[in-house]
Amino acid sequence: MRLDRLQACIAAAVTHGALAPDPAAGDRGAVVLVHDLDHLDRTLAELRAAFPPSTLHAIAVKANPVGAILDRIAAAGMGLECASGVELEMALRRLPADRVVFDSPCKTVDELRRALGAGARLNADSLQELDRIAALGPEGASDSIIGLRINPGVGAGRIAGTSTAVRGGKFGVDLSENRDAIIARFVDNPWLRGLHVHVGSQGCDLELLAAGAAAAVDLADQVIAAGGRVDALDIGGGLSASYGDRDDDGPSFRSLVAVLRQTVPRLFSGPWQVVTEYGRRVHAAAGVVLSRVEATKRSGGRRIAVIHAGADLFVRPAYRPAQWRHRITVHHPDGRIKEGPRMPWDVVGPLCFSGDRLAKGRQLPPIEPGDVIAVHDAGAYTLAMFSRYNSRRAPAVLGVAGPSDRPLATRILKAEESTAGVMAFWGA
Question: Which of 92, 285, 352, 383 is surrounded by the most beta carbons within 10 Å?
Fold first, then answer.
């Protein structure tokens, strides 16, 4: 996020009562997640412009399930991709069923029945799941486009934990072991008319994403040649977001489509609708987590700043810091960037374990209690992965819009969780 925009976001949060520099003012709003709605709108427009107009873009609910964000995606004409029964209900509440895609490796019979009854798009994760669907009688009884997720086995990206197209992976049907069986399922079951592939969620280069799409297109042509149908070809998501100290959003959708057109031109000329499922690349750069600095200390020669965001919001950076590094900046309470000599700081969270650490030895200006720490590129997989450990309240989510040279239009997208709400979760 650009510095002028970030400073305007902090000012907007302070105006709404968050980040109070005086601890005596109370602990409400000590941490807040701010989403730049203009940035989200621009990213959605870039996605739409990069692909052919007939493409269905089903944005991954799991990346950012905040209801007001989902409403904005729906209003932009996009679809939603769901990975649980609850996410399915969230999507069906907002969209016609033909713009809802239901993926999950662990769907129950009731969830399958619900998706089929609503007419949502459905991607089975296994041949066994196809048998369950067949037992529910989809032939002539559902408007759903039912597909099958394959594992193309094209290899891993730079992060093993977010790579899904490896041999022995948990997702989809291994193509190298089951190609003939997959083709036979399409021929024998006319209601099966979609293919789905997704090779990873971060750390996958454009060529790896294109290799996965190419494997799906090759299989689709074999299915059609054998007498089956492929009406939808879902290439998943996986375009990486930019973390670290870079100030850009990451590889562009236009660059990805250029590689797809060069590597697998048939993708855009086949008798199927292309479906995508981007999430992280859509949301990450539009969000920033802002926290008041509660305390500073020295320990073992190290400078430590204690803030109200840690492994509860940033699970992956806490447990895999070498692979997930967020840019951090330090600000005065009114949002102005702090200057001064750089020195190594550890930025640690509020949780009761030693690994609750967002930065170790990071070169930052002097930090004092009451300052604001901004953790950049936090719009995806932060609140969505929020941890209940230590029973802390989930933060408020603010949405901002408008030019940065004047006060931003700001609204609460999700209120800060109450103490009573947390206690109710535990039945306490």
Answer: 285
DSSP of 163-178, one letter per residue?
B--STT-SSSEEHHHH
Domain boundaries, the chain: 3-36+284-426, 104-276
Distance CA 240, CA 206 (A): 9
- On whether the CB atoms of residues 198 and 238 are closer than 8 A, the answer is yes
Which residue reads 């109200």 in tokens?
308
Residue 362: phi, psi to the nearest 5? -75, 135
Q: Which residues are catalytic?
A: 352
DSSP annotation string for 184-225: HHHHH-TTEEEEE---BSSS--HHHHHHHHHHHHHHHHHHHH
C-alpha distances (whole Å) from 201 to each of 260, 266, 306 are 17, 24, 30
C-beta of residue 140 within 8 angstroms of C-beta of residue 117: no
pTM to 2 decimal places: 0.93
Specify the fold of 3-36+284-426. Lyase, Ornithine Decarboxylase; Chain A, domain 1 (2.40.37)
The encoded tokens of residue 123 equal 């991607």
Architecture of domain 104-276: Alpha-Beta Barrel (3.20)
Beta-carbon count within 10 A of 93 CB: 12
pLDDT one digit per residue (tens) for the chain, 428 residues: 788 888 888 888 888 888 876 656 566 789 999 999 999 999 999 999 999 999 999 999 999 999 999 999 999 999 999 999 999 999 999 999 999 999 999 999 999 999 999 999 999 999 999 999 999 986 656 789 999 999 887 654 454 555 455 566 688 999 989 999 999 999 999 999 999 998 877 656 888 889 999 999 999 999 999 999 999 999 999 887 877 666 666 789 999 999 999 999 999 999 999 999 999 999 999 999 999 999 999 999 999 999 999 999 999 888 877 777 889 999 999 889 999 999 999 999 999 999 999 999 999 999 999 999 999 999 999 999 999 999 999 999 999 999 988 889 999 999 999 999 999 999 99
